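[step 3/7] inverse_fold.run input=structure_tokens len=410
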């Protein structure tokens, strides 16, 4: 993967429009960093653990779950795929990975790498196919575990069908994350963090902070700073290293994002920058205008539904209690940020936000900590030691005292 990093970046940019610089530094590089982290974690995972008490002696075994169906989306194909593949293979499972038809080429490229690396044939199978195949695969009697990343609607449907068969499923779904900016936050640092934290991959990331919460005291300067930042982000050809906002991955996605921009305007929000129509000078391609809305009500459509594009909403709050309430006023709970000059205070607020991950001052959690969502953002966790748990079956074996003593002495 390291040797073919540039090739992988070029393929992802060609097939879904990720700006090439982001494809190199995120789309193709981070999967390698993930595998490094997962291999380190795996070395310390106990596959056999002796648990003793006065009443009983037990050996707890972690055994491979079996055959895993991994279903991944188009927005970060190698990252989503590696997030599942690393722990599953290290746990001893085999896999069938259903890639999205929009990003089949990067999946096939990974298949070439797997073969070149020498994994036995059949340990990982790459299956590019549409949504109907996802359900067929997830419900097939030869599958023991399902791991899905994608939309909340599709995840809810698959979970219901798997529930009928009592088939375990892990879901990493959508998000509508909030960036809560306290009055003592350093605004230039906040804006620099949100440049990536709210708009990377042209806004097509489920964990992006797209609701910007700021008090009335700092609202105007925050809106001005965000608009100025967006104005410095080049929009255009994703093959140009300077481009920061590329096209949407598909025409359908462009139309979806454009529809939400129109909805925001129709519901009374003010487009500080962007708005309806194409960016100037871009008459071809699936481009939308990066848009910053102000005057957004917490219950507005654009504040409640996932847009999956370069669209941000600024929402005002009167005090800290209201800010936390607004952050939690969402069907989703995947990610979030707290910006403050007092990290201790930020930690207190982070504990009150109902979401699977919170970043203080834009600090990411890495791959050694679990990530995932609550509410409509998913079930279960990926990454970290906890990300291995879904791929293990636990078995407890009762032992006679002499066997327990022998094991304890090993």
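[step 3/7] decode complete -> sequence:
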């Amino acid at each position: 993967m390291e040797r073919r990093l540039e090739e992988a970046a070029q393929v992802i940019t060609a097939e879904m429009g990720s700006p090439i610089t982001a494809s190199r530094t995120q789309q193709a590089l981070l999967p390698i960093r993930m595998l490094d982290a997962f291999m380190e974690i795996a070395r310390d995972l106990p596959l056999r653990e002796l648990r003793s008490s006065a009443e009983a002696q037990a050996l707890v075994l972690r055994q491979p779950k079996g055959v895993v169906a991994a279903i991944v989306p188009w927005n970060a194909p190698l990252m989503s795929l590696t997030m599942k593949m690393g722990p599953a293979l290290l746990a001893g499972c085999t896999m069938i990975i259903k890639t999205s038809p929009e990003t089949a080429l990067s999946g096939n490229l990974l298949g070439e790498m797997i073969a070149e690396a020498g994994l036995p044939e059949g340990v990982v199978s790459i299956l590019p196919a549409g949504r109907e195949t996802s359900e067929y695969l997830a419900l097939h009697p030869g599958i023991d575990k399902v791991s899905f990343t994608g939309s909340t609607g599709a995840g809810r449907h698959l979970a219901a069908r798997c529930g009928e068969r009592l088939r375990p499923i892990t879901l990493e779904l959508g998000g509508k994350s909030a960036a809560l900016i306290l009055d003592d936050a350093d605004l230039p640092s906040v804006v620099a963090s949100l440049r990536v934290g709210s708009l990377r991959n042209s806004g097509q990331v489920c964990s992006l902070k797209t609701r910007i919460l700021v008090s009335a005291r700092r609202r105007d300067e925050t809106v001005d700073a965000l608009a100025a930042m967006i104005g410095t982000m080049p929009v255009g050809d994703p093959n140009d290293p300077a481009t920061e906002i590329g096209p949407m991955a598909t025409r359908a996605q462009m139309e979806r994002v454009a529809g939400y921009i129109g909805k925001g305007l129709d519901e009374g929000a003010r487009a500080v920058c962007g708005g309806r129509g194409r960016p100037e000078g871009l008459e071809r391609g699936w481009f939308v205008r990066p848009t910053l809305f102000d005057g957004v009500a917490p219950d507005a459509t654009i504040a409640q539904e996932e847009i999956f594009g370069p669209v941000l909403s600024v929402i005002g709050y009167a005090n800290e209690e209201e800010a936390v309430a607004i952050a939690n006023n969402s069907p989703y709970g995947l990610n979030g940020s707290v910006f403050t000059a007092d990290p201790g205070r930020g930690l207190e607020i982070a504990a009150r936000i109902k979401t699977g991950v919170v970043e203080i001052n834009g600090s990411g959690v890495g791959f050694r900590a679990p990530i995932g969502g609550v509410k409509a953002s998913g079930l279960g966790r990926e990454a970290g030691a906890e990300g291995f748990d879904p791929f293990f079956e636990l078995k407890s074996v009762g032992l006679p005292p002499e066997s327990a003593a022998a094991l304890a002495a090993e």
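[step 4/7] annotate
The chain is about 40% helix and 20% strand.
The mean pLDDT is 96.
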